[in-house]
Amino acid sequence: MKSKAKLSASMTLTQFDNGYWYATELKKFAETIRLPSAGKLRKDELERAIRLFLKTGEIKNPTKRNLSISGMRDVQRGLRLDLPVVVYTNDKETKDFLEREAQKLAPGLKRKSGVRYRLNRWREERLIKGVKLTYGGLVKEYVRLNQIKVPFARIPHGRYINFMSDFLAVEKGATREQAIKAWRKLKRLDVPKNYRSWLESQSRKVR
C-alpha cells in the first residue's frame, strides 16, 4: 500500500484527508498560504481551514475564538475551584488539577475516551458566548462527561479519538497500547484514517 502524499497546495482533498498531518506540518503549510493567526489555531481548526482552501481556494479563519488573549496564565495564578477561567492552558498541571478535583466529587471516576476533547470544546463554546466559567465549573462538567453511559457522537475531525473508540469496541480484549500501535501503523498509510481502513489493510497482509 502506498505511503501518504506530500502536503502541498496542489494536492487533492482526498489526498489531504487520507494523510495524517502533525500540527507543526499544518501550521507551517498554513503560514505558506497566509492563513491569519495560523500559529494560534488548534490542529482541527487548521485542518478545517486547509480543507476549505484545497476545495475552494478560499483562505478563511475557521474560529470565533479570541486568539489575542494575553497575560498571566491561569495555572500561574494558582488553580483553585473559584478561579475564573481566563487564560486556560492544556498542560499537565491543569489536567492533573481537574482529575484530582474530579476524584473528590466522584471517587473512583474513570476517564472516558474523548472527554478532554469535549471538555475543551464545551469550555470554548461558553467563553465565546460570554458565559463566565470557573475551574469548579470545569471540574463538574468533566465529571458529568465521564459519567455519560452512552457512546459519544463521532467527532468530525477527531480521527484518532474515533479510531481508538472503534478499535477498543470491536477488538475484544484489546488494550489501549495495542490500539495506539495500530493507529501508528494506520496513519502512515494513504487511506482514510478509520478502523475500517485499518481492518482492510490487515486483511491484505494475510492474503
Describe this structure in words.
It is built from ten helices and no strands. By secondary structure, it is an all-alpha fold. It has three domains: 1-65, no CATH class; 74-146, no CATH class; 159-205.
Fold topology:
Layout: H1 13-18, H2 23-32, H3 43-56, H4 74-77, H5 92-105, H6 115-128, H7 135-146, H8 159-170, H9 176-186, H10 195-205
Helix pairs in contact: 2-3, 5-7, 6-7, 8-9
Please provide a brief summary of the model.
The chain is mainly α and 207 residues long. It contains ten helices and no strands.
Descriptive labels:
mainly alpha; 52% helix; 207 residues
Average of per-residue pLDDT values: 88
Rg for CA atoms: 19 Å
Q: Which residues sit in consecutive blocks of at least 5 with pLDDT less than 50?
A: none
Total domain modules = 3
Number of helices: 10
User: What is the percent of helical residues?
Assistant: 40-55%
Number of strands: 0
Percent strand equals under 5%
Could you give the distance between the termini? 14 Å
**Helix/strand class:** mainly alpha
Order of helices and strands: HHHHHHHHHH
Report the biggest beta sheet as strand number plus sense, adding barrel if it closes.
Answer: none
Shape: flat
